[in-house]
Amino acid sequence: MNRAARLRREQVTSGIVNFVLSGAFFFGVFGFGKSSLHFAAPDNFALDFLPQSAAIASMSSLVPLLVVSGRTSPEKRGERTGPRTGAATGPGTTAFIVRTVLSVVVAGIVGAGLAAAFCFLGPGREIGWSLALAVKLVYGTVPGVSGTTFALNRLFAHHGRETA
Asked: Is 25 helix (H, G, I), strand (E, B) or coil?
């Protein structure tokens, strides 16, 4: 499978998973069918972007990195590995994955801060339940796909080349 096809597959998977999980957590946190949700207390809709962003950012980058790096590892390509070959294995790979995931998490938290600020500084003090659900579903899907895209593009560049 080529790089573009692998990236598209992981983007679709990430989008679907983050859409479903965002909906499930929305129902778990805010319940079903309320007429509206307050941005601040008692519902804290605006603050809910922070844990949502942290979870989405970490998982949308970590899981695809681990899955795809296992499939594209030098061992799978029949190459020698180890510290003298410069191959992407061992502590260097771990550090690369940690740096990539942290980059996506920082971006996610910045996005959450902007979303919360928009809620708090906007003209309203509450949002309709259905609109809130739609916002959370879109907010869960878009950063999830973006985090996966960023992480895998970095991985492909790190590996230099990629074959199935």
From this structure: helix
Measured distance CA(5)–CA(96) in Å, rounded: 23
| Average pLDDT of the segment spanning 123-146 | 96
Q: Which structure tokens are listed for 115?
A: 């979303």
Residue 120 pLDDT > 50, yes or no? yes
Q: Is 37 exposed, middle or buried (0-12, 13-18, 19+ CB in 10 A)?
A: buried
Closest C-alpha to 61, from 94, 98, 92: 98
- The pairing of strands 36-38 and 126-128 is antiparallel
Give the relative orientation of helices 3-30 and 129-159 as an angle to the nearest 10 degrees.
150
Query: Mind listing the pLDDT tens digit for each residue in 74-107?
Result: 555 455 555 444 444 556 788 999 999 999 999 9
Residue type present at position 110: V
Q: What is the pTM of this model?
A: 0.84
Compute the distance between CA of residue 117 and CA of residue 130 in angstroms, rounded to an integer. 21
Q: How far is CA 76 from the centre of its chain?
A: 26
Strands annotated E in 68-125: none
pLDDT of 39-75, one tens digit each?
999 999 999 999 999 999 999 999 999 999 877 655 5
